[in-house]
Amino acid sequence: MLFHPLSDHLPFDASLNYFVGIFDIYDREETKGVELAKYNPNDPKDRKELILKYCLDPDKIFSYRHKYKLMENLEFALTTKNFDFHIYFEDNHDEYTSMAWDETEIDDPRGFFEEVFRLANKEWEDDIQKASLEDQSTW
User: Fold this and answer.
1) Model confidence over 114-123: pLDDT tens digits?
2) 31 lies in a domain?
3) In the predicted structure, residue 64 carries a pLDDT above the cut 90
C-alpha cells in the first residue's frame, strides 16, 4: 500500500486537492492571500506560473509513485463526463478552508486541471515513466 509521503500508516488517497489545496489561504489572508492575489488564474500566463510554482509538488514531498497516482487520478477525473472540478475551489468554513479564488472566480475549473495535467506530464515525465514500469499492486 502506498502511504502518504509524510506518514508510515496513512494511506495515500491521491486526491485532486493535492494540486490546488496549496491555494487555501484560511487564516493567512494577509500573507499568502496577498501573494496569490497578484495572479489571475484565468489568464493563461498566470495560470501556468501558478501551476509550476505552487501545484506541482513545490516542497518535493512526492515520490515518483505518488506523482504517478496523482496523475492517474487526474486523468480519470478529466475523462469522466460531468466531473465536478468546481468543488476543489469551494470555500468550506466547516473545514476552515478559504481558497484564494473561489469557484465563482475560476472561469473554467476543468481547464485549470487540464493545464495541471499537461504541465505535470511534462515536468514529471521521467517519474511517471519510472512508476509505469513497476507493478503498482506491490506498492
Assistant:
1) 999 999 999 9
2) yes
3) yes
